[in-house]
Amino acid sequence: MTIKLKLSLALAFLFAVTLLLGGLGIYYLNQLADDARAILKDNYTSLQFVGSMQKALLTRNSDPNSIRTFETSLRRQEANLTEEGEKELVEAVRVDFDRLRSGNRPDSLTAARIQQNLLQLGAINQQAMFRKNNVAEQTAKDALIWLVVMGTFCFVILFSFIINFPGYIANPLRELTRGIQQVASRNFEERLHFKSNDEFGDLARAFNSMAHKLDEYEHTKLADVLFEKKRIDTLIQLMDNGIVGLDEKKTIRFVNPVACRLLGVEEADLVGKYAPDAALTNDLLRTLLQHLVEPAMETQGAGGLLKIFDDGKESYFNRQTHVVTLTRTGENQPVAAGWVIVLENITAYQERDLAKTNFIATVSHELKTPISAIKMSLKLLDDQRVGALNEEQKQLVDHVRNDADRLLNITGELLNMAQVESGQIQLTIKAVKPVDLVQYATSALEVAASQRRIRFVVSGLSDLPAIKADPDKATWVLVNLLSNAIRHSPEDNVVRISAQQLGNQVEFVVRDYGPGLRPEHRARVFDRYFRAPGQNGQVSGTGLGLAISKEFIQTMGGEIGLKEDIEPGAAFYFQLAVA
């Protein structure tokens, strides 16, 4: 007999037991419902009609509607004759009522007979109610007895079923689980010994066959595994990057010649050693193991830039620490298998990047001198003592001045970016009043704002504490944010500058009412050289202002960002610590 058939029979038995108990309960509940319905419909209703007729009979002289009420109740009672003797009494009441209503006989005698018949009619229905109530109680007792007997019988059978049947399923599974765990531990000599003619027996025979084949495979494929290991070791030895491999216990398992050269240690002195012990006398190895000693740093691909003296010069290496996990055969959850530390030589890229930064800084610095000379010449041209200019010449001078200002701004941004990329941002941190920063920035942009008829609205600057900042860098950031707000605001509009204290920091917010930023541009607005298109699809600026602002604020220990859900326009903010 198969397990499927056994489970089907067991479930069919449970279904039959449930059906039996449910059917028995439903049958007796219907019986009780019928008895209660008979009492209410047959007898209680008749008592209501009798009471109504008695009341109408007593008030016939004072209530003009009593005769109609009596007639209605009598007609309803004539349609509800359910007990023996009810029909004769109702017919007698009908005869006397007709006489009473016609007035052919004395009222008192007729009313007395009607009253007497109504009392007998009520007594008949009361006795019927008591009799039917006894029948309902007997039905309830029978139902309780049958349910107790059948429930006890079913409970005994189900209890025996619950005790014995799970063992029939669980014991072979427990034995199979134990065997699988042994095979997973590479004990391929494990066998299952329970015998059965169902699927469990087939499973045991299949498991024993599998274990036997794995045992043979373990012994016949060992040479192939060793060959593949040598192939992988050779590839690691030939790689140009420095590679150090550790197991889950932080024991060094392999190290290639490049890593040995950088560490200044022979391979034989590293392989098989506990890495933290070997790092006690090696500063570079101790630096490489920082991500392993600090659990919070143990993330996939955790890296960092290292400067190492190699090949007769200072070289740059990108450190990558990879967590190695593997899933054993037959398992679902991966387990830790160690770490691989890779040192990638990026000296050539770093030198090119440094050369690019130095070139930008040099060119920007050299451009500032002729641009300043151009501005000085333009200022002299505006002097009336040199000579008067006609309107066309003045327009040309204005165009040249605007172009010179734009070039000066671009060279300034390039110089700042060169400082940022070289890591040589020079700060002079001091206590600065927020009102001074805002006044200086708004004064510097007053002419540019007036040309577009844009007003500055300042709020929240009173009673703010001083902040710790480099006044030049902080002012530069605020000027950059205000310049962007002016450029993207429509004419005849306002730009709002507000400040407030948030804990131990002061937050500055610059808000404009222009077209704002698209959702896909918000995440990239602080990236270098990124320029968001304007309302007409055109781009302006160098894409460096916000990137430089971010570097300046973060170097001063602050935070800068873009406010969410601001419409219309955009609101940029930065926060600096209280002095």
UniProtKB/TrEMBL annotation:
Keywords, sorted A to Z: ATP-binding, Kinase, Membrane, Nucleotide-binding, Phosphoprotein, Transferase, Transmembrane, Transmembrane helix, Two-component regulatory system
Main location: membrane
InterPro entries (alphabetical): BphY/WalK/GraS-like, HAMP_dom, HATPase_C_sf, HATPase_dom, His_kinase_dom, HisK_dim/P_dom, HisK_dim/P_sf, PAS
Pfam families: HAMP (PF00672), HATPase_c (PF02518), HisKA (PF00512), PAS (PF00989)
Key word Transmembrane present: yes
Residue span, HAMP domain: 167-219
Membrane topology: Multi-pass membrane protein
Protein's recorded name: histidine kinase
Species whose genome carries this gene: Larkinella humicola
